[in-house]
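Name: Integral membrane protein
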Amino acid sequence: MSEWLVLSIAMASACAVVLTITVINNRRLGDDDDPSETPDVIEYMTMMIGVVYAIVLGLAIAGVWEGRSAAQESVRQEAQALHEVSARSEVYPAEVRARIRSDVDAYVTYVVTTEWRHMADHGSLTGRGTELLDQVRRDVTDYVPKSDHEAQAYQPLVDQVAAADDARGARGQGAEATMPGVVWFGLIIGALVAVGLIFALQIRRTGRELLLAGLYSALIAFLLFLIWDFDAPFGRGLSATAGPFLDLFPDATR
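Structure predicted for Integral membrane protein:
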């Protein structure tokens, strides 16, 4: 099911529940009910709880967005490091250079076509990807430079392989969900409380009040969906992409 369809259903469901309860609740009220009798303390509490929950939502969105940005940055660093390995191997003999570039291409192709889907489904890296990167490392470290020019390129190549390995590790750590279950519990309970307090203000069945109640509940549903979508940096619609790999290695998917 499309994630945008899930969002639409969640927002529509939130609106429907709130509006249905509002209509049913108003039918139970007598003609002598006066909404102006709502105690001031209830209005104050409703406002304070709304403000506090808005702050919590903002912090949660900032946290998952930062996690997504960090995941995308790790992908960029890994792709750039591998591109440097492929480019700087130009100083090596043709046979060695071809082997290094071939193994780099094999690793990138595997990451883009296979490991990416595995990260989305399981939240972890694969052993095969580690083996392919280890092969690139052996290609670089096992070669003994035969000239000063090759010797000067050797250590930078080793450093770039290490940088790619470090970025790969960061990518693996970022593949998991970042929001603990207890935080989700607080967000959901807070949403129920925030929406539930609408009825403490004794809203009526006027078009304006029903519209505001529906928009308020839909907004909370949308923000919760946004947090949920960002919480899996590699697994959902607004997730980090393999763009840096595809930009630097355009033949990776062939």
